[in-house]
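User: Reviewer 2 asked us to show a designed sequence for the structure in our supplementary figure. I'm pasting the structure tokens here. Could you produce the per-position amino acids so we can include them in the response letter?
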């Protein structure tokens, strides 16, 4: 059995255990259903962020999806589920902020070089907003196309 097939089977079993639909999982994990289908077919390797989101929604310990892909089994969360869910949300938020900061810095540097002078504070704020919009658009396209 291929890794993506093991993952698809484990996801199906867990959905049955939790009495969830694919749509409910997608909503709970903030992942598009198209992305879930692509992961199940093996057309999309889930990113670290997507793995964390899915593991949180399925009440699995962090690393469970990688364990499945490596031929192992997922580890259900113990009594610490509320703490782990909070940690996962905080980690995802931190990752998003870090990604936006990097994108914003690159855009700012590129524009400053092109213009031959540094950006004003207002221009820097606009650049940060554009970086946020760009990242959301790219993630949406990634999820749609797998």
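Assistant: Here is a per-position design you can include in the supplement:
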């Amino acid at each position: 059995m291929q890794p993506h097939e093991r993952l698809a089977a484990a996801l199906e079993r867990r959905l049955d255990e939790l009495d969830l639909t694919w749509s409910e999982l997608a909503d709970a994990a903030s992942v598009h259903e198209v992305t879930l289908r692509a992961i199940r077919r093996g057309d999309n390797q889930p990113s670290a962020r997507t793995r964390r989101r899915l593991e949180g929604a399925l009440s699995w310990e962090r690393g469970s999806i990688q364990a499945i892909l490596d031929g192992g089994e997922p580890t259900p969360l113990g009594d610490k589920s509320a703490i782990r869910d909070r940690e996962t949300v905080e980690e995802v938020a931190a990752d998003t902020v870090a990604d936006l900061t990097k994108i914003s810095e690159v855009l700012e540097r590129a524009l400053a070089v092109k213009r031959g002078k540094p950006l004003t504070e207002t221009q820097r704020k606009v650049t940060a907003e554009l970086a946020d919009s760009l990242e959301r658009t790219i993630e949406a396209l990634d999820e749609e196309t797998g």
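For the response letter, you might also mention the following. The CA atoms of residues 18 and 58 lie 8 Å apart. The helical segments are 3-18, 22-29, 33-41, 48-57, 64-69, 81-115, 121-145.
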